[in-house]
User: Which sequence fits this backbone?
């Protein structure tokens, strides 16, 4: 395999390419030039060519890209031609929303269990999943193959639980908790910092309103 | 105001500083050196000094930073000493999770309304909020001051609705929909690309398993 030294920046753009190419297919557009794709995506054509060169050559000079081929190659590259087994830890609002999110299953992410420590939630059904007692998590990890654990629990618990997960052999953590998880080599953590994101928005809003006031006084 | 030319990278680090300083205060730690803070956060001390210099001088040579002062300054800088009024568009799983998320209110984000186009959801109570008919959104925006609109609706609707929001004068969009919103100058969009994030995780996992297999054969 040639995709060993690809930068995080390129990796992070792949899902976006995948999304745009899927849209093209939905609209029966089967070939596209790097220029047209670039325009749609608001990036440069040379960026696209560079990115795709990382994975081998998909385009033909003067013809453009074969959308279907590229779509399936990126799908393979991203790894979503596989099926991943997922557990959700924390059956609160975010955990429940994710458990009910139909798109994940369609994309090969299979949620096999949900855990919480709250006695009011344990035993409840979320969609088709019963919420299991978090105390049973180590045993569950011994008995089942889990690729990804979703962490949607409060900060104070997230650190302890992430240790349990990692020592249980889980290789991927999708982290919604407001902590920075220290993972050993070989364990991948992808964080979705919700409150950080909202704070970034509010910072940029307050800055924008400052700029506006400055302009008004010009 | 001096905070006009601060890079997005610095801005994006601010909420994380805020989070760590809040943890220090929770543990009654009232001063900290840039070195100790750096170690906690896994970044360099010079990075911290550079970042904080953007906003003026908070540290004293040989003394370290006054945690409480720094915390409140960053709070002011991020803009969360203000109260923002928020509407949520899309009362599905993610929308409901956000509506029920207690932390937002505590941080000065006040959800004033929720909208959906699904007749089964319109009129329902989510927490204390009644779901309003999306058809009434333009009128609502005329009658109310809205700082931030949360978009948690399917792709096909997100584009049209974002136009309604923007022409209704909303300056901030917190986007959970899988679309890239084209916003005019003065409108801030902060996206939380959930499926993109999960795909990045799966890509990194599949790459990791490839590397592992390569190492096994060494």
Assistant:
């Amino acid at each position: 395999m040639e995709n060993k030294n690809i930068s995080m920046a390129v990796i992070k753009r792949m899902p976006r390419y995948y999304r745009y190419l899927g849209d093209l297919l939905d609209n029966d557009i089967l070939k596209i030039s790097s220029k047209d794709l670039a325009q749609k995506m608001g990036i440069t054509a040379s960026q696209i060519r560079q990115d795709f060169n990382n994975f081998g050559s998909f385009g033909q000079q003067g013809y453009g890209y074969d959308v279907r081929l590229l779509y399936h190659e990126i799908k393979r590259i991203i790894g979503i031609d596989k099926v991943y087994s997922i557990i959700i830890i924390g059956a609160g609002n975010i955990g429940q929303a994710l458990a009910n999110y139909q798109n994940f299953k369609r994309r090969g992410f299979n949620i096999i269990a949900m855990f919480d420590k709250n006695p009011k939630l344990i035993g409840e059904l979320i969609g088709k999943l019963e919420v299991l007692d978090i105390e049973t998590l180590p045993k569950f990890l011994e008995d089942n193959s889990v690729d990804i654990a979703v962490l949607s629990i409060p900060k104070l618990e997230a650190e302890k639980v992430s240790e349990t997960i990692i020592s249980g052999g889980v290789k991927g953590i999708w982290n919604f908790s407001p902590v920075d998880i220290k993972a050993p080599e070989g364990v991948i953590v992808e964080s979705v910092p919700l409150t950080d994101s909202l704070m970034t928005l509010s910072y940029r809003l307050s800055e924008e309103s400052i700029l506006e006031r400055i302009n008004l006084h010009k």
